[in-house]
Design goal:
Layout (H helix, E strand, L loop, with lengths): L2 H12 L3 H16 L5 E9 L6 E8 L5 E5 L6 H16 L7 H11 L6 H22 L3 H4 L8 E9 L2 H13 L4 E6 L27 H19 L4 E5 L6 H11 L6 E3 L10 H7 L4 E3 L6 H9 L5 E2 L9 H13 L3 E2 L9 H13 L6 E2 L5 H6 E2 L3 E3 L2 E3 L9 E2 L1 H6 L8 H5 L18
Parallel strand pairs: 4-5, 4-11, 5-6, 6-7, 7-8, 8-9, 9-10
Antiparallel strand pairs: 1-2, 2-3, 4-14, 12-15, 13-14
Helix pairs in contact: 1-2, 3-5, 4-5, 7-8, 8-9
Bound molecules: magnesium ion (MG).
Length: 445
């Protein structure tokens, strides 16, 4: 059978003209013949434009102008991610194809033998997301198109409303609602204590040490009161979220989830720590409060049982902490089958590249739940050109190919790690300090 006959048959089968069939065949042949771009260099951009250390991996290829960026942000140990990439991952990657994303991920994940730790997972994520960026640039498409295209027009976000006292939180929440936000995370301080995600007052509590103090019961009663006030002042329609941040005992968390149920929270986040995940079975049996969990997760051993047994409602992984977009799109697919929704971690210690990756997953995954929102500072936008935009409480993807983000490396160099850090944070190289109960017992952060 000659080529003309074959083309006629192909055209008839596809209901297109023989000329179009010939053009398609030429394009397919050209694609097959196109050599894979090879990885020429792997670099880490170290920048802190908003004060938080943001390691971002840049992969350069042997094709002129073809490169990509990936988020490797483990801000509490950011300095350690840099040698993990430069000394261990870079030598594995030089000369390898830049278009084999899952294969590269599996190679890096297994090459350290001991795996699922936060430093190496973030280093792998930097590479993984840079390869997705490169593939999007090769295709001329934003990454969400490579993942299947949009399931929704934009990404519903939640804003953070916090304060040292109730009126401050309410004022902040009303401000966000006036800007169009429909979801608000509310956190209030406890006088004299180091409450998570909330302002501190000048009151001093008596303690047997000089570290910041936190007492679980004082926090729990303030948090419950906050929900009561919020429902009265903000109405029934707004969705209210809250993060316990694993700071109380499992049985205290169970009681809080039961008590707060009547205020219909959108979700309660991290009621227990990753070490206590078997307690979710008990919490689930006691109340219908929606549960979010996972920003501290590193390993499939942590999220698989919670999703499989339908013990949580929202999976809240820090995408780079799990190793990037490649593992997280699989997590999302598994979660969809079990009726669990996504709520990727998205505070200031995720780079704009990481936020763009979150948004790509948010747009393309049917089981999107909510996205932690962020409005980027002027300095962040000076370094990361093309940051995703927020309007009326929605995040919008940048429609340029890949993540749509270009890093201005000269601007990035103006804000090295340590910029704007002071006191204890500077001494700890951007790490967190300690929080203790009155008697000196360490509290989980
Ligand atoms: Mg959290």
């Amino acid at each position: 059978m000659n080529r003309r006959t074959l083309l006629s048959m192909a055209a008839a089968a596809a209901a297109i003209s023989p000329r179009e069939a010939a053009a398609q065949e030429r394009a397919a042949r050209a694609t097959r013949a196109m050599p894979s771009p090879k990885i020429k260099d792997v670099q880490v951009i170290q920048t802190a434009p908003a004060g938080l250390r943001l390691p971002v991996v840049k992969i350069l290829t042997d094709q002129d102008g073809l490169y990509g960026y990936g988020c490797a942000c483990y801000t509490q140990r950011a300095d350690l991610v840099v040698p993990a990439v430069e000394r261990y991952i870079r030598p594995l990657l030089i000369g390898k194809p830049a278009d084999r994303i899952d294969d590269t991920w599996q190679m890096l994940y297994n090459s350290s033998y001991w795996r699922n730790g936060p430093v190496l997972n973030n280093a792998i994520s930097g590479v993984d997301e840079a390869l997705w960026d490169i593939k999007g640039r090769m295709a001329g498409m934003p990454v969400y198109q490579l993942l299947g295209g949009k399931c929704r027009e934009a990404v519903d976000c939640y804003a953070h409303s916090s304060g040292a006292d109730f009126p401050q939180v309410m004022e902040s929440a009303k401000g966000y609602m006036a800007k169009g936000y429909r979801h608000i995370r509310i956190q209030v301080g406890v006088p004299g204590m180091a409450g998570y995600g909330a302002g501190r007052s000048d009151v001093k509590v008596q303690a047997l040490h000089s570290a910041p103090v936190f007492e679980p019961e004082a926090y729990l009663s303030r948090a419950l009161k906050l929900f009561e006030i919020a429902r009265k002042e903000l109405g029934d329609e707004v969705e209210l979220l809250h993060d316990i941040h694993e700071r109380v005992s499992p049985v205290q968390a169970m009681r809080f989830c039961k008590d707060v149920e009547k205020y219909r929270p959108f979700f309660i986040e991290d009621p227990v720590s990753p070490e206590d995940i078997t307690w979710f079975r008990h919490i689930r049996a006691q109340c219908t409060t929606p549960l979010a969990m996972g920003e501290l997760f590193n390993s499939p051993h942590e999220w698989v049982p919670l999703i499989h047994e339908r013990l949580i409602d929202y999976i809240r992984i820090h995408v780079s902490q799990a190793g990037g977009v490649t593992p997280c799109r699989k997590v999302a697919a598994m979660a969809e089958l079990m009726g669990v929704k996504t709520a990727w971690h998205g505070p200031g210690d995720v780079s704009p590249v990481g936020h763009a990756a979150n948004i790509a997953l948010d747009l393309a995954c049917y089981n999107f739940g909510i996205q932690e929102g962020r409005v980027f500072t002027e300095r962040e936008q000076e370094v990361f050109h093309g940051c995703p935009k927020t309007e009326n409480g929605y995040f919008y993807a940048n429609e340029a190919p890949g993540w749509g983000i270009e890093v201005d490396e000269k601007a990035a160099a103006k804000y090295p790690f340590g910029s704007f850090e002071q006191g204890e944070r500077k001494r700890l190289n951007g790490g967190w300090g300690e929080v203790r109960r009155r008697d000196g017992t360490i509290i989980k952060q």
